[in-house]
Amino acid sequence: MTPPDERRLLTPEEYRQAQDSPEFVELKRRFRRFAFPMTVAFLSWYLLYVLLSTYAPDLMSTRVFGNVNLGLLLGLGQFLTTFVITHLYVAHANRQTDPIADEMRGRLEHHEYARGTEAPDSSVGGGATRG
Q1: Cα distance between residue 70 and residue 61, in whole Å
Q2: CA torsion through residues 108, 110, 114, 119, sign
Q3: Burial 79-101 (b: 16+ CB within 10 A, else e)
Q4: Alpha carbon distances (Å) from 107 to 59, 78, 93
Q5: Which InterPro entries does the entry link to (predicted)?
Q6: DSSP-derived 3-state class of residue 63
Q7: Where are the domains of the chain?
């Protein structure tokens, strides 16, 4: 990364060029391919929990062991699901989106979009690795 005192502001044209680049289109596609299905899955799981709590209290109060019932386990499962989704997203970002974002950030910092130059390896599958 460029040290802060050596940076200059990017122009709106540079942002527009970056936004219109194939790398950015691929970055958005990869993000959406993960985020939208995961959001729908989690909201469905949460809605199921709320609906079961509201309309199936007998099922939710079923004792599993001791004073622990099914509703409590499903509620704790909501928290567990949040941590699992976070882990999955971090792994997805490290593999699928961060390399492209890192490459684009480097190109923006070097004002390559202003010059209209292509990335040295403009294949969207490539990119910088995180270290």
Answers
A1: 6
A2: negative
A3: eeeeeebeeeeeebbeebbbbbb
A4: 56, 40, 19
A5: DUF485
A6: strand
A7: 6-115
**Model pLDDT, residue 117:** 55
- How much is the pLDDT for 131? 41
pLDDT at position 118, please? 53
Q: 3-state DSSP call for residue 120?
A: coil
Residue type, 108: L
pLDDT below 50 — which residues of the chain? 122, 126-131
Going along 3-113, which residue ranges are E strands?
Answer: 63-65, 68-69
pLDDT of residue 70: 95
Name every residue whose Cβ is closer than 8 Å to that of residue 124 and which is 6 or more positions away in sequence: 22, 23, 26, 100
Structure tokens at 124: 């969207």
Q: What is the pLDDT of residue 22?
A: 92
For residue 69, report the phi and psi dihedrals to the nearest 5 degrees. -110, 175
